[in-house]
Amino acid sequence: VSEAFAANHDNKLSAYRRAFIKRLNEANAKKGEPELDDGGEDAVESGLNALLGLERYLLPTLEISESADEETVSDIFVRVNSQGQALKQDDFIMTLLSVYEPAMRERIEEFCAMSHAPAKGTSYNPLMTVSPTHIIRATVGVGFKRGRLRYAYQILRGRDLKTKETTPETRAENFATFGRALDLVLD
Fold first, then answer.
1. Number of C-beta neighbours around residue 39 at 10 A
2. pTM summary value
3. What is the pLDDT of residues 111-151, one digit of tens each?
């Protein structure tokens, strides 16, 4: 691969391609296989062009300042990932848990994973497969008396639904409430 890029940069791609095809034909001869026909040579040419096209491939990147706080990074993640694939409210909540309370996220994922396989002492349920959405919805209902996950996301970001203010203190209190409710739900 690096030889192909070097040949291209040195304007010797045509010579590289001919030498490559010659080596390929020699290897085929040793195996008793026929030389490449026009279609085979076209395939080599096409493959080289596709390989060299990687230099022109634009990879979208997003640079985040090192001074950005965790909440900003979490918001950026949510915004970026809501573009291509439609994320659901529980995806956003799981992101918040990853940022602020990774142990809670792990507990939810472990409980859900255990619900997929029957074993003694697990959360296995033969009638349904438990998902993070189920756990989060139940936890929000128990802890905050709310049924819509949209409110849960706002609450876990630290928003007081009465005053409409978002603060780190409220976020910490709400995560503590969520944690206590999660204990009840997972029991």
1. 7
2. 0.55
3. 888 887 777 777 777 787 888 888 998 999 999 888 777 77
Maximum Cα–Cα distance across the chain: 81
Rg of the chain over all Cα atoms, to the nearest angstrom? 28
Query: CA-to-CA distance for 105 and 96, rounded, in angstroms?
Result: 9
Instruction: List pLDDT tens digits, range 18-61.
Output: 999 999 999 999 999 999 999 999 999 999 999 998 888 877 77
Q: Is 160 left (phi over 0), alpha (psi -120 to 50) or beta?
A: beta
CA distance 79 to 158: 18
Tokens representing 161 are 């639904």
**Ordered DSSP codes for 47-58:** HHHHHHGGGG--
**SS3 (DSSP) at 82:** coil
The overall average pLDDT reported for the chain is 85
Q: What whole-number distance in Å separates Cα of residue 178 and Cα of residue 155? A: 10
Q: Which helix (H) or strand (E) holds 74?
A: helix 70-81
Task: Pick the closest to residue 133 from 119, 112, 118 (CA basis).
Answer: 112
